[in-house]
């Protein structure tokens, strides 16, 4: 049998929405995958030639960009942050909708109000720097890996750039959403070289394309 394809999926919220889409595209994980107590990171699927790995969202992009996994699902926020040339994102899965936004406490002035430099806490330093640069502002980014919303209250940075969905996390931490930097949704990503050399990758892309074009009515 040919080497199995490795499909990387992110832990966290996106997974719940991604699973039905994957199943409609014929990617059905083994039972153990649904067992909350299971600590394994690799799972078989009903396809003998396809296995899943469950990793952090940023790592999905890294595994696929390096060809260690051939296919993956990840938010467009992560794709934008890495800007990997070996990574191709052919299908918008129309799930995992949220936005990447600049937020700050109410007493912090609007970005762009005359400042040429600002400090921002974020998991997205590249996207953040680029966005501020377009406004002639130099952003000094303090990299955090989660719980960005706590940074202003502790004086780490007056502004944050983070994902916003319902807005509850911002509100409950005394922050206001100021600017939407990008709208986010989950994408199917593939390694460019694998797409060229392994027909199974192109076939998976087509399956997901079909599923995404005909959202489940149920
Ligand atoms: C995300 C994001 C925000 C929150 C926004 O974090 O980083 O903190 O969700 O959602 P809301 O607008 O609906 O409140 P998540 O809970 O996924 O965990 P993380 O901090 O590990 O990224």
Describe this structure as you would to a colleague:
- Pathway: Amino-acid biosynthesis; L-histidine biosynthesis; L-histidine from 5-phospho-alpha-D-ribose 1-diphosphate: step 1/9.
- Keywords: Amino-acid biosynthesis, ATP-binding, Cytoplasm, Glycosyltransferase, Histidine biosynthesis, Nucleotide-binding, Transferase.
- It is found in: Cytoplasm.
- Heteromultimer composed of HisG and HisZ subunits.
- This protein is α/β, with parallel strands linked by helices.
- It has 2 domains: 5-96 and 185-213, Periplasmic binding protein-like II (D-Maltodextrin-Binding Protein, domain 2), CATH 3.40.190.10; 98-182, 3-Layer(aba) Sandwich (D-Maltodextrin-Binding Protein, domain 2), CATH 3.40.190.10.
- It contains 7 helices and 11 strands.
- It has helices spanning 14-24, 57-65, 76-82, 125-133, 168-172, 192-197, 199-213; strands at 5-10, 42-44, 50-55, 71-75, 87-92, 98-104, 117-122, 138-143, 159-164, 176-184, 186-191.
- Strand 7 (117-122), helix 4 and strand 8 (138-143) form a beta-alpha-beta unit.
- The structure holds 1-O-pyrophosphono-5-O-phosphono-alpha-D-ribofuranose (PRP).
- Residues 12-13, 146-147, 149, 162-169 line the site of 1-O-pyrophosphono-5-O-phosphono-alpha-D-ribofuranose.
């Amino acid at each position: 049998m040919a080497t199995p394809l490795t499909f990387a999926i992110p832990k966290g919220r996106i997974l719940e929405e991604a699973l039905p889409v994957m199943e409609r595209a014929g990617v059905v994980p083994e039972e153990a995958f649904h067992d909350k107590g299971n600590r394994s990171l690799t799972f078989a699927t009903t396809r003998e030639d396809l296995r899943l790995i469950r990793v952090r969202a940023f790592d999905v992009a890294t595994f696929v960009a390096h060809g260690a996994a051939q296919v993956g699902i990840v938010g467009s926020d992560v794709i934008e942050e890495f800007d990997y040339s070996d990574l191709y994102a052919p299908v918008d899965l129309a799930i995992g909708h949220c936005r990447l936004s600049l937020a700050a406490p109410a007493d912090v002035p609007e970005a762009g109000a005359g400042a040429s430099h600002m400090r921002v806490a974020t998991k997205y330093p590249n996207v953040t720097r680029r966005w501020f640069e377009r406004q002639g502002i130099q952003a000094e980014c303090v990299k955090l890996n989660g719980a960005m919303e706590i940074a202003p209250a502790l004086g780490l940075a007056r502004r944050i750039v983070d994902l916003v969905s319902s807005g509850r996390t911002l509100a409950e931490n005394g922050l206001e959403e100021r600017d939407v930097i990008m709208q986010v949704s989950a994408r199917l990503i593939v390694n460019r070289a694998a797409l060229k050399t392994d027909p199974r990758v192109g076939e998976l892309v087509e399956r997901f394309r079909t599923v995404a074009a005909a959202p489940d009515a149920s």
